[in-house]
Amino acid sequence: MTFGRLERTSAPKPMSEINMTPLVDVMLVLVVIFILTAPLLTSSLRLDLPVSAAAQLQEPARTVRLGLDKAGQVYLDDQPLSLDAVKLRLTQIAQQNPLSEVQLWADQAAPYGQVVVLMGLAQQAGLSRLGFVAKP
Fold first, then answer.
1. C-beta of residue 93 within 8 angstroms of C-beta of residue 124
2. pTM confidence score
């Protein structure tokens, strides 16, 4: 039997770099969790509101179609009318429901001045909710 010296293997070198993959995985999971739960947190407010006789629901706003073609003809709910008749009819609608919305349907070739006149008629009648309709 020969006694000799045994060769030692060198120990593994310590890793000098941090493995970022697990950290990135955890952070992405947390981001997904926050993205999914954030909308749920804002709408989860539950209140027991007091009851009052003064808190009545308002009737839904009526929608009025006010149209203007390229020839200058004015239409109110698809019926051709003169400017005086439109003014009178808009005043009646405003007295019935002041929250009514006027949808202005103006032809692309209609003069801008007539569009402004129609807007002024609606505002003078007491209808302040005015929307412009266009093709999508």
1. no
2. 0.54
pLDDT by residue (tens digit) across 23-50?
A: 999 999 999 998 988 877 665 556 556 6
Query: Which residue is listed with tokens 């390229």?
Result: 70
Give the 3-state secondary structure of residue 131. strand
- Which residues, other chains included, contact 19 with Cβ-Cβ below 8 Å and sequence gap of 6+? none
Pair of tokens at residue 48:
């027991």
CB 76, CB 64: distance < 8 Å:
yes
Ordered structural domains, the chain, with CATH: 63-132 (3.30.420.270)
Where are the strands (E) in the chain, listed by range?
63-68, 74-76, 79-81, 101-106, 129-132
Four-residue CA torsion sign, 74, 79, 82, 84: negative
